[in-house]
Write a structure and sequence with these properties.
The protein is mostly helical and 567 residues long. It has helices at 50-61, 68-87, 95-111, 116-132, 137-140, 159-182, 184-188, 211-227, 231-235, 280-296, 317-331, 345-360, 363-370, 374-380, 386-406, 409-419, 426-434, 458-464, 494-509, 517-536, 540-553; strands spanning 15-18, 21-23, 197-201, 204-208, 241-244, 251-259, 264-270, 305-308, 311-314, 441-442, 448-449, 488-489. The protein has 21 helices and 12 strands. It has a 3-stranded antiparallel beta sheet with strand order 5-6-7. Strands 10-11-12 form a 3-stranded antiparallel beta sheet, with no helix packed on it. The chain starts with 14 loop residues before the first strand and ends in a 14-residue tail after the last helix.
């Protein structure tokens, strides 16, 4: 048995956890009771398990299945596991060690010091390590499900929080970008202590060190605001390509990036929140960001960088976190509840998703915008902001109570406004804030409707009426007559035209379900001709992209292959 204060064996791993950022987990720590940190090892008690530790090290070293980031997580969990085993003490390579760890996790969850999801993840990590060590995991681990999965939805920002963050992030980015572009070489070679730049906000002016990294950190969060993309996909983005779309501004920036956890490529499009038109301020930002990257790093394909002492690396999570701590502490950013207000990519994503879902009620469209399934959107991105939700619930409850008392909903709304000392009810404010003019209300055809409640829908409402019941509250849904209606609005976007092409195919497939061709033409011939006219009026590039999507993905979920459209 080897048991010397110093082993002449290298027990360090070299793990690349992000970009060119390396960590060096050292298995020497396991030689001491309780797995102390490296600088505390000289105070620790040396144990007689060197051969066992070498076996652990070799198992980690030989791994080819997991990424370096995962291996670093496994190592950190293993240190906690061995620490618990040493505190009892029991052999970590035993069923007793596993039982002790499971007991400790259950206790931590019970007293609230650890969440159920965290405990479940740590237990899964130890199970993975025991498999790597060729131990009988099915015999050692409990056969019962110890922890339930908890859904932890990401909370969106309120409107006031969003305005506060975007305002300071834009100021930080544009002020630093302007200073950096005047003398790029000086900033590239700047050391950690060099404060060449300055930032002024709300009458506070501060010197800035690491200006390039701080500038790109601000750009990272602005990209999260404009794109609703995942944190990792934003960090890994290459410089986006400008493409032409039929929007008010003409340009649209698109970039494909790898979504690592899902192991798939997603397309990031830079546009406005809840709009198909890219706003001027978004165009100004992305154009300046691309220019900044070309000025600083002419040969780089990557969009976001960190730079110190002339060394250019990918922007990594630790640098984003530390630079945002600097911003929060200096300017004392607080949320609506007086707590620390942090910019987070996932919260910008949740804000866009929950607002779009609340405004449209369309979980399918929301999931498509986020490149997620509707179930993921429901679990993680649909809860909105707690303060705004409570305000809307309170206003709703007051209005219902007043409606019961006075019997008139309009008067009830007025009373609620007086009681809550508001100018406008929270939900009305939300709708007014995000409602966009021009495209109108979306229809299942991939087009819009300027006014689904005007007199052009009276024919539909008369047909829907039962026993003279008033149907004036119904929006028009006479889809076959949309193409002859002056309220129809054509939206030249790939997904909308894909939906329209799917509807066209569904109509054509209905031939087999009709009695004869005369029956089919009587139902759909006029509509098919109108749709053809619409399709030929669309930009050729957009139409071809939509046709390609129809060919590769199939029909839009609104118009599945099995739909029966016989009238």
């Amino acid at each position: 048995m080897i048991n010397k204060p110093n082993l002449n064996i290298d027990l360090k791993l070299k793990l690349n956890i992000y970009g060119d950022q390396f960590v060096y987990p050292d298995f020497q720590r396991f030689r001491y009771k309780g797995v102390p940190k490296l600088f505390e090892m000289h105070l620790g008690t040396l144990l007689s398990r060197d051969n066992q530790i070498i076996k652990w090290y070799q198992a980690f070293k030989a791994n080819t299945e997991y990424t370096d980031t995962t291996m670093n997580t496994l190592f950190r969990t293993f240190t906690r596991y061995v620490n618990i085993c040493d505190s009892i003490p029991v052999n970590p390579d035993s069923k007793e060690g596993i039982n002790a760890f499971e007991t400790a996790l259950v206790h931590s969850v019970r007293i609230g010091s650890k969440s159920s999801n965290t405990a479940k993840g740590e237990l899964s990590s130890i199970r993975t390590i025991m498999k790597m060590l060729d131990h009988p995991v099915d015999e050692w681990f409990s056969k019962f499900k110890l922890f339930r999965s908890q859904i932890n939805p990401t909370q969106a920002y309120s409107e006031s929080e969003l305005k506060k963050l975007i305002k300071i992030l834009k100021e930080l980015y544009f002020q630093l970008s302007k200073q950096i572009q005047t003398s790029p070489k000086e900033y590239i070679q700047a050391k950690r202590s060099d404060q060449y730049a300055s930032f002024s906000f709300n009458k506070i002016e501060v010197p800035v060190s690491g200006a390039i990294t701080k500038c790109y950190c601000a750009a990272y969060f602005l990209l999260a605001y404009y794109t609703w993309a995942n944190a990792s996909t934003i960090r890994d983005m290459d410089i986006p390509k400008a493409s032409q779309k039929k929007g008010q501004q003409g340009k649209w920036f698109v970039q494909t990036a790898l979504k690592k956890r899902a192991n798939k490529f997603v397309t990031i499009e830079l546009g406005d929140n809840l709009s198909t038109d890219i706003p001027k301020h978004a165009l100004n930002f992305i154009n300046d960001l691309i220019t900044l990257t070309h000025v600083l790093f002419p040969d780089a394909n990557r969009l976001l960088h960190q730079c110190l002492n002339g060394i250019n690396k990918p922007l990594c999570p630790t640098h984003i976190r530390s630079n945002m701590n600097w911003l929060i502490n200096i300017f004392d950013l607080t949320d609506d509840n007086g707590q620390q207000l942090r910019p987070e990519a996932k919260r910008f994503r949740a804000t866009g998703a929950s607002n779009y879902l609340a405004l449209t009620g369309n979980s399918l469209e929301t999931s498509m915008l986020l490149n997620n399934t509707p179930d993921v959107v429901r679990k993680h991105y649909s809860r909105g902001n707690e303060s705004e939700n409570n305000a809307q619930l309170q206003a709703t409850a007051n209005t219902l109570e007043n409606a019961i008392k006075c019997g008139d909903i309009s008067r009830a709304r007025e009373q609620t406004l007086e009681q809550m000392n508001l100018e406008i009810l929270p939900y009305d404010e939300f709708v007014n804030r995000y409602a966009k003019s021009g495209n109108g209300q979306k229809t299942p055809l991939g087009t819009g409707c300027k006014d689904p409640f005007d007199n052009h829908g009276d024919r539909f409402r008369r047909k829907a009426s039962i026993d003279s019941v008033d149907m004036t509250h119904l929006a028009c849904a006479d889809l076959l007559n949309c193409f002859s209606c002056p309220n129809q609005v054509l939206v030249e976007e790939v997904d909308d035209i894909w939906c329209l092409l799917s509807f066209y195919e569904a109509l054509e497939d209905a031939k087999e379900d009709h009695l004869n061709m005369s029956h089919f033409k009587n139902n759909f011939d006029r509509v098919l001709r109108k749709i053809k006219q619409v399709l030929f009026s669309i930009d050729l590039k957009v139409r071809r992209q939509a046709e390609r999507k129809l060919h590769t993905i199939g029909r839009h979920p609104f118009w599945p292959d099995t739909l029966n459209l016989v009238l």
